[in-house]
Write a structure and sequence with these properties.
With 92 residues, this protein is mostly helical. The protein has one domain. The protein contains 3 helices and no strands. Helix 1 packs antiparallel against helix 2 and helix 2 runs antiparallel to helix 3. The radius of gyration is 14 Å and the shape is elongated. The termini are far apart.
Amino acid sequence: MIRILIFVSVALLVIIGIYLLKKGTVFLPLMHNGEPDENTQFLHQFGVFYLILAAIGILVGIFNLTFFSLFYIFSLLVISAIFTVMFAKKIL
């Protein structure tokens, strides 16, 4: 069951990461704080983070060790929370 969750999260991370890298300009009108170059760099940075997490998730899903699986899910939640809080600061 955890393995399925990891592979679904990997698929979502790849989609979100590619979207942030290719179509990051969609979010720029929402961001009021900061300059456009900083905001583009912010979105690009988290797009790369999500793709790195997806690559790590593939390895974790293949080896299927419980500790690493739970640590991966925990780190995924932490990175997502950091992105959400930083993005909310830029919007508000």
